UniProtKB/TrEMBL annotation, chain A:
GO MF terms, alphabetically ordered: branched-chain 2-oxo acid dehydrogenase activity
Annotated Transketolase-like pyrimidine-binding domain residues: 73-248
Protein name per the record: 3-methyl-2-oxobutanoate dehydrogenase (2-methylpropanoyl-transferring)
TM stretches of this protein: none
Origin species: Geranomyces variabilis
InterPro entries noted in UniProt: THDP-binding (IPR029061), Transketo_C/PFOR_II (IPR009014), Transketolase-like_Pyr-bd (IPR005475), Transketolase_C (IPR033248)
Pfam families linked: Transket_pyr (PF02779), Transketolase_C (PF02780)
SUPFAM superfamilies: Thiamin diphosphate-binding fold (THDP-binding), TK C-terminal domain-like
Automatic annotation (TrEMBL), chain B:
Protein source organism: Geranomyces variabilis
CDD domains: TPP_E1_PDC_ADC_BCADC (cd02000)
SUPFAM superfamilies: Thiamin diphosphate-binding fold (THDP-binding)
GO CC annotations, alphabetized: mitochondrial matrix
Protein name: 2-oxoisovalerate dehydrogenase subunit alpha
GO biological process, one term: branched-chain amino acid catabolic process
Keyword RNA-binding assigned: no
Taxonomic superkingdom: Eukaryota
Localization: Mitochondrion matrix
Free-text function comment from the UniProt entry: The branched-chain alpha-keto dehydrogenase complex catalyzes the overall conversion of alpha-keto acids to acyl-CoA and CO(2). It contains multiple copies of three enzymatic components: branched-chain alpha-keto acid decarboxylase (E1), lipoamide acyltransferase (E2) and lipoamide dehydrogenase (E3).
Key words of the record: Metal-binding, Mitochondrion, Oxidoreductase, Potassium, Thiamine pyrophosphate, Transit peptide
Amino acid sequence: MFARKSSPLFRALRLARPSTLRYRSYASASGTPPPAEGFMPSVATSAFMNNTADQVFRNPELKAFASSSTKKMNLFQAVNEAMDVALATDDKAVVFGEDVGFGGVFRCTMGLQEKYGASRVFNTPLTEQGLVGFGIGMAAVGHTAIAEIQFADYVFPAFDQIVNEAAKYRYRSGNQFDCGGLTIRMPCMAVGHGGHYHSQSPEAYFAHTPGIKVVVPRSPIQAKGLLLAAIRDPNPVIVMEPKILYRAAVEQVPEGDYTLPLGKAEVLKQGKDVTVVGWGSQLYVLETAIAMLEKEIPGISVELIDLRSVLPWDVETIEKSVNKTGRLVIAHEAPVTSGFGAEIAATIQERCFLRLEAPVQRVAGWDIPFPLIFEKFYVPSAIRCVKGIKKALNY
Amino acid sequence: MFAAAIRSASPLARLARPAAGLVRTPTLAAASSLQRMLQRQVSGTSAAQAVSAVTPPTPEGRVLFPGATGSHYTEKMSFNRDPKAMSTYRVLDLEGNVIDPAQEPDLPKEVLLKMYKSMLTLNAMDLILYEAQRQGRISFYMTSYGEEATHMGSAAALKNDDVVYGQYREAGVLMYRGFTIEQFMNQCYSNAMDFGKGRQMPVHYGSRELNFQTISSPLGTQLPQAAGSAYALKLSGKDACVICYFGEGAASEGDFHAALNIASTTESPCLFFCRNNGYAISTPVKDQYRGDGIASRGQGYGMDTIRVDGNDALAVYNAVKEARRRAISESRPVLIEALTYRVGHHSTSDDSSAYRPKTEVSDWIKQDSPIARFRKYLEKKGHWTADEEAAFKKSVRSQILKEFAAAEKIPKPSLDHMFTDVLAGEQPWNLKEQEAEMRALVKEFPQHYDTKDYQK
Ligand SMILES: Cc1ncc(C[n+]2csc(CCOP(=O)(O)OP(=O)(O)O)c2C)c(N)n1
Ligand SMILES: [Mg+2]
C-alpha cells in the first residue's frame, strides 16, 4: 500500500523532473513521517540557546535552581517535562485534549498516560468548546486542568468558553468562584507549509480579554518554566507554543521543578540605539536581522526584548528600554492591524512621547489570511525586520 | 387594602380559593388552547378543525407539556439507555454477491464501471501523491484508502445541481463529479492553475463548476453551512439537495449538533453523510463517543436516519439515492452513517503505528476491501476481467504520472494573487499600501525574495 524506497513507483517519481521548489525541510529519508512542525535553521545556531549548565544558571531567574542538573532537550520534551512535574507534584492535576492519550500530534504528552493513568491523562472527543468548558468546570471545583488545543487555529470553537466564561468566572461571581486552575496550551505560529489553518498567531484576540493571561515561550527552558508557572498561576492562562520550535529549539534545560515569572519580559541582548520587541519564534528572525544589521552598520547597538507574556505585558521593561534608546520596533507574525504590536505602540507613545526619536515601527504579517504558497512574502522576515529597524534609526 | 392585595397575591391565598373559581380563570383558557395546539401538532389536523372540536383531555394519555408532545404518561419509573443498535444496510456480501436480489440497484454497466474505475483512479492517485509528499515535492497529503466505496457510492447517487460540502477525505466524490487528474495535481502542487490560487494546503479542493464548496481545515464548520445551503435550495424551488460529508470525529464538534438541529427545524433538504472510519487521527471511537455510533443521534433530532455498510458501494448508492428523494420531495434532512475503516495513516504528518498495531490494518485489508468487493461483483456480472483490470491500472498510473510531471512544471501562482480576494470590491488603503510595500521589497531584495518559481 505504501511505496517503499526501492519500489518502481518511487523510481518513477524520481525520474520525473524535480521541482526547484522542494519541501526539503521536512522530507525525511528514513520513510518515517516527517515532523509536521517544519524547521527553522536559525534556531539551532542561536546564541539564545543555552548549551551548558553554566550558561543556564547565569540567568538570574534561574540562579535559585542552580543545584539542579540540566538535560539537553527540545521544546516538546520541555513541555512534556513541565506537565510531568505538574502531574507528579499535584494529584489534582489532569492533562487532556484531542489525541493527547497517545502523546499528542506534537508528542508533548508522550508517556504521560502510561505514567499517570488514563484517568489523569486522556483523550477528549473532538470538541474544543467541550474540552475547554470541561477544563473550566474541573478548575471551578478546585482541580488543575491542563488542556491542549491541537492547533491555535482551532481554538475558535472554544472562544466563547474562554472569553465569556473562563475570563469572567471570578469577576462575575464576586470572587466566590474562579477557574484559575485552568491552563490551555496550543501550538501557534508559522511552520513553512501550514497555510491558513496551521499557521495563525491569535494572541491579540485573547489579549483583548480581561481576566486571562497569555504567554508565548521562545525556547525549551522558557517553555518548561513558563508552563509550570501558568499551571500554578491562580488565573486561567493560555500558553501558545511556537510549533516550529518543538524540535528545532534544543538546549540544556534544568531538571525537576522550576518556574519562570509570568508578566515579565526578558532582555535578550542589551543595546543603546534601538529597542526591538518580539515573542515566540519571531525572536530568531530578529536575531538574524540584528546580525545582518550589525554587519551592515558596524557599531550599531540593538536591544532585543522577548515579551514572553502578552497579557499582562511588561510595560516597565519596554518603557525603560525605550527611554534609553529612543526607538522602538515591534515584530509579530499576526496581521498588523490590531495585532498586539498596536497595543505596545500606543502605550509606549503615551509614556515615552518626548523621548521617542522616531515613530514606533511595526513589522508584522500583512492583513490577509495566512497564504500557503506566499508564506515567505507574508511573514515578517529578517529582511523586513532589518528595514523596519533602519527606518526607526534613520527617521 | 394592602392586606387584601398581599393575601390575593400570596400563593397561600391562591391555594385557599375554591377549585371551582379556577375554572373561569384565563390561565385555564390558555391551557385549553395549548391543548388544542398540542393536539394539532400530534394529529396534524388543521387549526380550523381543531377549534371546532370539543377539546378532549390529553389525547391517548399523552403529556401536556410542549417539549415532547409524543410522550405518554407512565407510572413505571425507568431510565433509558442502550437501545438496540441500529442495523447496517448492505447489498453485497464480502465476496461481492448480491444478498437480496430486490436490493440490487438497476445501474447501467457504464455507471458501474465509472464507479469502479474512479475507485481505482483515486487509489492510484493517492499512492503517487502520498509518495510525492515523502519526497518533499508537495507539502502535505491525505489518502482515502479503504473509503473508496463511500465516495463513489454516494457520488453516483447525486446530481450535478446538488451542492457538496466535504471535510477533506472525499477526493473521490469530486473525482466522480468530473474533477480531472490535472486539476487535482494543480491543487496539490499549489501551482498557478490551482483554482484556490495556491493559498491553501494540498487536498483543500473546491470547484464552482462541480458544485463542490472549497474544503476548509477547521472541523465541523461545513455542517451548519450545509443546512443553510439546503434551505436556500428549498426556498428557490430547486430540484436539488445538499450533501455534507464529515468524519465521526468531527461529529463531536458543537457545529455538528447545531447543524442537525437547525436542518431539522427548518426542514432543509440536506444529507448529512458521516464517514465513520473508526479513527480521528489517533482517537478511536471509544474515546470519541458512547452510544450507538453517529446514526443514533439522527433520531434524537427527529431525522430520517440510515446506517449503511460503507464498504459496499451499492448499499451506499441505494441509501443516498433514497435519502435524496426524501430530502427533496419531503423537505427533510437525512442522516447517513457509513461504517468503514481508515486504512491509511491520517495524513502525511501521521504515523498510525504509534497508536494501532500494523496487523490491525493488514488484517482489515485481508478481511474487507471496498474495491475488491466491487470488483468481484462486476466480475460476476461479466462487466470486468482481470485483463481489463491490469490494463486500466497501468494506463491510469501512467496518466497520473504524466499529469504529475506536468503540474510540477507549472509555476507557482503570480504574486498578483496574494492580496486579492480578501474583500470584494475596491482594496482598502491598508491592503493597497501593504501590497506596494511587499512589491518594493521583492524588487529591492531579489536574493531574499526569489520569485523565479512564481508566475510573472
Ligand atoms: C476544529 C478542529 N480541531 C482539530 C482539528 C485537527 N484535526 C484534523 S483532522 C482531525 C481528525 C478528524 O477525524 P474524523 O472527523 O473522524 O475524520 P477522518 O480523518 O477520520 O476522515 C483532527 C483532530 C481540526 N482540523 N479542526
Ligand atoms: Mg474518522
